[in-house]
Design brief:
Bound molecules: cytidine-5'-diphosphate, magnesium ion
Protein name: RNA helicase
Strand order of the largest sheet: 5-4-6-3-7-8-2-9
GO biological process, one term: mRNA processing
Shape: globular
GO molecular function, one term: RNA helicase activity
Enzyme class: hydrolase
Strand content: 15-25%
Keywords: ATP-binding, Helicase, Hydrolase, mRNA processing, mRNA splicing, Nucleotide-binding, Spliceosome
Length: about 725
Amino acid sequence: PEARDKMNPFAEQEAWEEHQIGKSKLQFGSKDRKRSSDDYQYVFEDGIDFVKSSVIEGTQHEEDSDQEDIDEKDMLKRELQHVSLNQDERKTLPIYKFRDELLKAVEEYQVIVIVGETGSGKTTQIPQYLHEAGYTAKGKVACTQPRRVAAMSVAARVSQEMGVKLGHEVGYSIRFEDCTSEKTLIKYMTDGMLLREFLGEPDLASYSVVMVDEAHERTLSTDILFGLVKDISRFRPDLKLLISSATLDAEKFSDYFDSAPIFKIPGRRYPVEVHYTKAPEADYIDAAIVTVLQIHVTQPPGDILVFLTGQEEIETIDEILKHRTRGLGTKIAELLICPIYANLPTELQAKIFEPTPEGARKVVLATNIAETSLTIDGIKYVVDPGFCKIKSYNPRTGMESLLINPISKASANQRAGRSGRTGPGKCFRLYTSYNYMHDLEDNTVPEIQRTNLANVVLTLKSLGIHDLVNFDFMDPPPSEALLKALEQLFALSALNSRGELTKTGRRMAEFPLDPMLSKMIVASEKYKCSDEVISIASMLSVGNSIFYRPKDKQVHADNARLNFHTGNVGDHIALLNVYNSWKETDYSTQWCYENYIQVRSMKRARDIRDQLEGLLERVEIEISSNASDLDAIKKAITSGFFHHSSRLQKNGSYRTVKNPQTVLPRWVIYHELVLTTKEYMRQVTELKPDWLVEIAPHYYQLKDVDDTGTKKLPKGQGRAAL
Ligand code: CDP
Ligand code: MG
């Protein structure tokens, strides 16, 4: 449909990349490059001018002050890493010296707050110590992580250290992927998964220890877990609780957990030189690329860590860096580019931990995950553009968005610190020191205060927690957001007017999905199209990585993609077409290549679909197919997503309208909003406006959807979508 181009998130990216590549006139080895030793200023064609501004002092522990010794140890450690992960290596971690003390404290107290520098060994070692001390004989040890990649990678690491197969004694559990077994004693899991375990086991009886790790991240699930584990610790005196954090604001955790003792692990950290740009950078992507190359050609050996906001950005920079270094010839050392982000396939994740070969330099392109969750050895330089993606929520409009925002001072310092782990480091901030001083907030606002709470409210309600206002939150969410969540769940018929869980709500809570997606699935029963709807839900859950669009074959890729849209069926049905066509070829990989589809994403969708099928059975919804009735399928989708309806406006900023006969405005529902420099709707399907009234009469009235009248928007629905 003509709407597609306007919403094509690639459209803009493309133009932008062209601009980037066209602009790259960096000449390496050019005589212009000068560097004065102490001021760190060099002139670079198109280069960036940094000023050295401050030094973050290291907090070296006394015993560790012999730097050479550590460098040596570290080298040895790195060499050993891939030969064998023997037990001696574990003993080199800062936490090792405190092993016995820590175990004594765990024995003595029920709740302990543990604080230690990132990389000191909290995540990988503490669960092993607990296992060695016999806690796993009484029940599993759970260790929660805010990020799936961290849960997986840490579990892999620990299983190696223990010499067991991943999924046996040591396993992990993340949404849609359970890599544990009967044998599992140490279970790394996302905080969201532990939250879901409460649904089946409200007292967590099968656990002897719960370690809420990376507590400083204050994700929504972690915050809710705080309340729940605090509650069960009262009637399960045998359950040990460890709250571990990489930052020093431990008092807050201690206060919340009834003055729990704080256990500090002194870290080793070296001084980090901080450099700022002289003037603000107009384009931080470009600035990051130039800075990486500058470091590469002018700085002594040591790996580089660049903090970026997301997968797309990482992939773009990856490509541009490869493109630019290709032409550099043999005079410049090899630059190994290692991306790391949440959706990176597991096989590739291990790559970032591999030691850098002699003579080469590694550049790790990471999201916030490398801020505290993962430690990559060998990093000496950090490039910090100063941004991250932050979810924000406007309870008034009910609109949630992932926006690129400036980071906080705490984050900036955490990032800088990543360069000083194994020796003195340097951090290049792609912003001015004035920006740092005056524009950055001290701390990031906890997620609970800036997110849609519908999912959490549904979970809490199904746990029997009705009085949400008096729930023991560490930092309570805005009451407006709580109210909005209740309202939304009521609109989705998950709650009745007294705020009690309905049958629909109980069924919805079984699905580890956003309430809108679960509602769409539950509603598919009525429209007899559950088979199609779970396929769509699985494809949507995979994210934006189904279609593959290589630079040199964009036209072919776009044509292939259009095939699935025949009849202007909309993005949701197109996703269904992709899934079904793939299934017809007996899940052929070849077919994926031919159609510019990412086979990995499809396999994941299939996996998710299998699980959703299992859950359908659990909530007693029959699998029924209604493939020929597209309206029925779209109505089921609308039942979940009627909040996300939009009317297209004729607006000059749009791209060419491909099909001029179509009359505007038209009505669409979208899966999500993506906010970059502009706002895009992602996954859009046309709907008949009267469906809104038919399906959600409590939310839309006829006058809201009257196309003939003047522009009136349904209540609560902002036009911000467009
Ligand atoms: O949790 P904390 O930040 O205190 O440290 P950790 O994650 O337990 O990391 C301890 C050591 O294990 C670091 O030197 C990491 O580089 C290493 N590690 C690794 O090599 N591979 C992983 N997947 C995880 C950790
Ligand atoms: Mg950790």
